[in-house]
């Protein structure tokens, strides 16, 4: 019985962290990107609907990544890779380059994501469309970028 309660407590903690991450990502998207960039005069009802849709989209993408990746290390590597490749350059631009605006940040996000996805991902078994310098094929003929 003790192990059952312990497993329940760990599951509750993990689910709490997961749903708060998805909720915060969708609210940041709805307020900071949708309202500030696309619809400055959006009503609260419209923002709530955007949040509901993005909760579903972010939850579905997180579930797909979790189901497609075979190891926890793969998920950690993929999430840290996305943060350092897509979000960190935006932070540097905002802090150190004058004239950085929202539209440039959105273009940078999309361009960085496009370059990262077309580079392939061995943990999600995505073959690269762009072969960056230093790529090689492993024994299963999956191309890996360095």
UniProtKB/TrEMBL annotation:
Q: Which GO terms describe its molecular function?
A: choline:sodium symporter activity
Q: Tell me, which GO biological process terms does this entry list?
A: acetylcholine biosynthetic process; neuromuscular synaptic transmission; synaptic transmission, cholinergic
Sorted UniProt keywords:
Glycoprotein, Ion transport, Membrane, Neurotransmitter biosynthesis, Sodium, Sodium transport, Symport, Transmembrane, Transmembrane helix, Transport
Its localization reads: Membrane
Q: Does the keyword Transmembrane helix apply?
A: yes
Q: Which residues form a coiled coil?
A: none
Mention any one GO cellular component term assigned to this protein in its UniProt record.
Answer: perikaryon
Per its UniProt record, what Pfam families does this chain match? Answer: SSF (PF00474)
Gene3D superfamilies the UniProt entry points to: Sodium/glucose cotransporter
Which regions span the lipid bilayer? 49-68, 75-97, 103-126
**Membrane topology for this entry?**
Multi-pass membrane protein
Similarity annotation: Belongs to the sodium:solute symporter (SSF) (TC 2.A.21) family.
Designated name of the protein: Solute carrier family 5 member 7
Origin organism of this chain? Chelydra serpentina (Snapping turtle)
